[in-house]
Amino acid sequence: MASMSAIAVLPAASSSSSQHHLIAFASAAPCGLPVDRPQFSSESSALLTFQKHAFYGGRIACSSFVGKSAASCRKNLFVRATVSTEQAAPAKVEKISKKDDEGVQVNIFKPKNPYTGRCLLNTKIVGDDAPGETWHMVFTTEGKIPYREGQSIGVIPPGTDANGKPQKLRLYSIASSAPGDFGDYKTVSLCVKRLVYINDKGEEVKGVCSNFLCDLKPGGELSITGPVGKEMLMPKDPNATVIMLGTGTGIAPFRGFLWRMFFEQHDDYKFNGLAWLFLGVPTSSSLLYKEEFEKMKEKHPENFRLDFAVSREQTNAKGEKMYIQTRMAEYAEELWELLKKDNTYVYMCGLKGMEKGIDDIMTSLAEKDGYVWSDYKKQLKKSEQWNVEVY
């Protein structure tokens, strides 16, 4: 009997006039979905109701995609009614390069032969008073673009450029875990901010690809390339300390990390370490995936720390605006001690300007211990403990 595929439900933006686009889809599955997971049979505003108890009441069970079809993975999809808080004793894990993982694939689809995906969901996830629009969108992959948390995909917008040539692809960090928001390894999600600005001539300019994506309606098609990238892959050690520094849509890869750590169950992975997320945004109405992260913190207080830096609303003790580096400075000594351990991994994604502020903090801390930060950072990069993707 056909049953509805599991659907990830996103919190509505703070304003009641926020826009939402979502399409539900059915697929034949050998087993029914549990009653404590959201199930919907038609497109409706109810699809966007934030089902805290239903969706976040337990973890999604996911088997490894490698060597299995999406259908076989879906057979194992279920949500437990409770979440175990018991922690296994940390085991010493041999340090293996995340980039050597044989299951990681790149460039399955290239610009000359892209995959044609279909939009399933497109919803604005910031309030109407936020500076700019940010949208969460989900596209079909039919299991043909197996990706890992931290990878990116390319999107080729339709049409031609100013020179009459086909539009070039734009890269976007994937905002979902490997099983995807629906848990069936058949979708990929993005977090995209609509680019609109005024040029030197006083003319309004709209970013070609971001506006195409933000305006895409459910059922609309797009050309996808990839997946690409190994720089931002998660560490293999389940006992690691993972420090994530994101600004705005730079949160995308970290959402994938955290779903794998806290919302899913895997046969070959159980996170027992510490995940620490710093997210910087201009206003509280532009905090992305806030309720998801707060639910993770509530369920896993010993394994997840969460710090927001809201620059236009918060200040530090000196009255300075609260940027991500300002928030980090409040924990400077603790962060430095963590960085001296060989199982601490730092990931940075977002606006390029954040990197200098963080370097400034680390430079002074390193000097106190007799280190030269620029040299120490090179060592961290070599050991894959300092990972940066900024733009």
Write up what this structure looks like:
It is a single chain. 20% of the residues lie in helices and 25% in strands. It contains 9 helices and 18 strands. The chain has helices at 52-55, 70-75, 208-214, 252-263, 290-299, 324-329, 332-339, 353-368, 373-382; strands at 2-4, 20-22, 26-28, 60-62, 115-124, 134-140, 152-156, 170-173, 187-193, 196-198, 204-206, 221-228, 241-247, 264-266, 274-281, 304-310, 344-350, 386-390. The strands form 5 sheets. Strands 2, 5, 6, 7, 8, 9 and 12 form a 7-stranded antiparallel β-sheet that branches. Strands 16-15-13-17-18 form a 5-stranded parallel β-sheet, sandwiched between helices. It starts with a strand and ends with a strand. The model is unreliable at 1-9, 14-18, 20-57 and 64-87 (pLDDT under 50).
